[in-house]
């Protein structure tokens, strides 16, 4: 907590003067502790303890408000939550400039590739991915992978073998869902559990595994059975976003399933 306190204090000192107080006498730069605490909806005592590095319970919501008041950049915000050992309830999303760069990156890839957020909504994808997974990615803006797999009958024809892949997806989602805000995670899990007995059984099995990639098989309407090697990447500057790339496997190279 000492490092957290030092980081918060230095960011407070870096804040520009409040409007109307540019000439306010002060022995230190930036804002006073009282001003930061009030703006973040915290008690002055509690905020002071944070800067002093005391071992106190800090909630994600309180840290979120503090990050906004301190005007932290995305990397600084991620660092703040990392120091506190907490998941960010509202990680930064890509702005228009970032989105344009990501679209260009995806377009440059010849292999199917798509970008998922913490809810497993598809944010961006390239043309090869749209062709391979049209039943999913062709369903409008931000199609959700879990809703497609468990609620759309087309998933059983596209994803092979469907049942084992479906159970593994739930185990992978459980591992990654810790970064998703509790209300959003609970709402999605309750929705899927109420609509899909398979999802409910898989969730209650309480299996956990990392979404690291591996062989993926699909049934394409024109090309038939096709196999890929999936590789997954975390975006360094965008917490919670993950890029998945499917590299085609030559005929005969796929493992027997």
From TrEMBL:
Stored InterPro entries: Cro/C1-type_HTH, Lambda_DNA-bd_dom_sf, MLTR_LBD
Q: Can you provide one Gene Ontology molecular function annotated for this UniProt record?
A: DNA binding
**Signal peptide start-end:** none
What the entry lists under CDD domains is as follows: HTH_XRE
Report the superkingdom from the record: Bacteria
In this protein, which residues make up the domain named HTH cro/C1-type? 7-77
The name this protein goes by in its record: Helix-turn-helix domain-containing protein
Originating species: Arboricoccus pini
């Amino acid at each position: 907590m000492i490092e957290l306190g030092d980081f918060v204090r230095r960011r407070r000192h870096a804040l520009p003067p409040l409007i109307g107080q540019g000439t306010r006498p002060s022995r230190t730069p930036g804002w006073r502790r009282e001003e930061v605490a009030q703006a973040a909806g915290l008690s002055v005592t509690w905020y002071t303890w944070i800067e002093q590095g005391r071992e106190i319970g800090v909630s994600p919501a309180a840290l979120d408000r503090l990050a906004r008041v301190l005007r932290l950049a995305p990397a600084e915000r991620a660092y703040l939550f990392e120091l506190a050992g907490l998941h960010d309830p509202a990680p930064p999303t890509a702005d228009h400039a970032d989105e344009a760069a990501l679209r260009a990156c995806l377009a440059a890839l010849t292999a199917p590739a798509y970008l998922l957020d913490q809810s497993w909504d598809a944010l961006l994808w390239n043309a090869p991915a749209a062709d391979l997974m049209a039943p999913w990615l062709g369903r409008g803006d931000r199609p959700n992978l879990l809703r497609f797999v468990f609620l759309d009958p087309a998933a059983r024809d596209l994803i092979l073998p469907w049942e084992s892949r479906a159970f593994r997806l739930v185990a992978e989602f459980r591992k990654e869902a810790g970064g998703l805000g509790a209300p959003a995670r609970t709402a999605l899990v309750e929705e899927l559990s109420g609509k899909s007995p398979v999802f409910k059984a898989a969730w209650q099995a309480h299996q956990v595994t990392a979404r690291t990639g591996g062989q993926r098989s699909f049934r394409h309407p024109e090309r038939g059975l096709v196999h890929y090697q999936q590789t997954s990447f975390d975006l360094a500057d965008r917490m919670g976003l993950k890029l998945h790339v499917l590299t085609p496997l030559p005929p005969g190279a796929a493992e027997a399933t």
